[in-house]
Amino acid sequence: MRRSAGIPVLVTLSVGAALADPPDGFEIIDIVADRLSWIDVPYLNNCAQVVFSPMPEPRNESHEIFLYDNGYLTQMTRNEVPDNFPDINDEGAMTWTVGDQGQFGGKVVILTQGEIIVLGEGRTSRINNVGHVAWVRYNGQGCSEADADIFFFDGQSVRQLTDDSTTKGGPVINDGDDITWARADLCKNPYVRAVMLYSEGRIIKLPNLYASASLAHINNPRQVAFGGSSAGVELWEGGVNRLITDWGSHPRINDAGEIFFLRFFDDNRTWQGHLYRPDGEILQLTDDPFWNTDGDINNWGEIVWRAVNVRTSERRVRLMRRVRTGDSEFDSDIDLIDYAQFAACMTGPEWVKRKNPGPHDSLCDCRFLDINHDGDVDLADFALFQNAFTGE
Q1: CA–CA separation, 95 vs 134, rounded Å?
Q2: Where among 322, 352, 380 does a domain terminate?
Q3: Considering only 63-77, 186-200, 339-353, which range has the smallest mean pLDDT?
Q4: Is residue 352 located within the same domain as residue 304?
Q5: What's the rounded Cα separation, in Å, for the pair 273 and 192?
Q6: Are residues 181 and 33 in the same domain?
Q7: Any idea which of 59-63, 155-159, 210-214, 315-319 has the lowest mean pLDDT?
Q8: Any bridge partners for residue 260, and if so which?
Q9: Which of 82, 88, 166, 323 shows a CA-CA span of 20 to 30 A to 8?
Q10: With contact defined as beta carbons under 8 Å apart, do 181 and 172 qualify?
């Protein structure tokens, strides 16, 4: 089944500074700060494009898909059914759930080259950079009526990967079509949880130190980070797993092995975002009255997550992005290599790009040379670049 994608509508939502302590070379902004009844987990690609699905307050409107790209928000859907759980790859292809079948049901769709294609029933789909998609479909059976199976679209056809009576969390897929997910047997007391990996045509169960793992995430080097409570975050690699921290949950890992995860603080009853680096350093990214919860991390070390103030119901989508100085390599100088990159990234006036907004118009890697964040790389940016140029 195919249908044409609607014309994206450019919208304006507040963008401001968030209360946080980012690492050197990064800054944190609020993409959205508003009274909303819900925001699904936001995801981002390596172009720092962010997709998310908010539900307005009061709940008299459905979820819609929004795309944030270099300071601009575009509403990608506008209809009478809930559109939620979006994801986006580096080519700008998107997947999400059209939730027209109740809490656990819906249809998984993919938007590519201007067309929306229905892949099948299910929800919480993830897309990789070759356009392949993995998702979960609930069967309405079992002890909690939440038994589910994992499905996979390989660009040509859809395959069902599992067929057992267990509950499964939303899967994550890397560019090599390795897929990981968390599995729980809710018919046993206590619940029996496991982290599963589909790779090279077979499914294996990963070892884990804690039985509470309920979320798993995989990168392209086939490292799997997982955890589900404050008990700890584990990292599996090459058949061996190790404990990264005994205080943390909900990890997301990038190709450099950096892990964004959450910690719960008993003294103020809040969740705060943290960053683990492969050298063992752990940085606290937030320290405020908000519950800073699930998000995503890209290969540039940029992170997106959602936050809610439980007292005021204010909800936010936060983005930790690299500070733009003209240093396109992030090697601590602005030299002739950066100059050559600037020349390659020069674009026309900003209005040319914005007259047809959407994921196909992303600056992607050139965004680091859009120093004034206005959607293009032009003479205004060159003036700032010249002032910072070292030539060394």
Answers
A1: 10
A2: 322
A3: 339-353
A4: no
A5: 28
A6: yes
A7: 59-63
A8: 252, 275
A9: 323
A10: yes
**Are both 303 and 372 inside the same structural domain?**
no
> Per-residue pLDDT averaged across 114-129, rounded?
95
Whether 251 is covered by a domain: the verdict is: yes
Sign of the CA dihedral with 265 first, then 271, 272, and 277 last: positive
The last residue of one of the domains, among 292, 322, 352, is 322
What's the pTM? 0.90
Residues 315 and 184 in one domain: yes
Query: 232: which 2 tokens?
Result: 């700890």
CATH number of the CATH domain containing 313: 2.130.10.150
Separation of alpha carbons 226 and 174, rounded Å: 15
64, pLDDT greater than 50: yes
- In this structure, are 257 and 343 located in the same domain? no
Q: Are residues 164 and 80 in the same domain?
A: yes
**Residue 302 falls inside a structural domain:** yes
Count of structural domains within the chain: 2
Position 362 in a domain: yes
For 289-319, write each residue's pLDDT tens digit: 999 999 999 999 999 999 998 888 888 999 9
Give residue 137's pLDDT band: very low, low, confident or very high (50, 70, 90). very high
For residues 268 and 357, membership in a common domain is answered with no
222, 91: one domain: yes
CA distance 73 to 115: 20
Domain assignment present for 327: no
Count the residues in the chain.
Answer: 392
- HEC string for the chain: CEEECCCCEEECCCCEECCECCCCCEEEEEEEEEEEEEECCCEECCCCCEEECEEECCCCCCCCCEEEECCEEEECCCCCCCEEEEEECCCCCEEEEECCCCCCCCEEEEEECCEEEEEEECEEEEECCCCCEEEEEECCCCCCCCCEEEEEECCCCEEECCCCCCEECCCEECCCCCEEEEEEECCCCCCEEEEEEEECCEEEEECCCCCCCCCEEECCCCCEEECCCCECEEEEECCEEEEEECCEEEEEECCCCCEEEEEEECCCCEEEEEEECCCCCEEECECCCCEEEEEEECCCCCEEEEEECCCCCEEEEEEEEECCCCCCCCCCCCCHHHHHHHHHHCCCCHHHHHCCCCHHHCCHHHHHHCCCCCCCCCHHHHHHHHHHCCCC
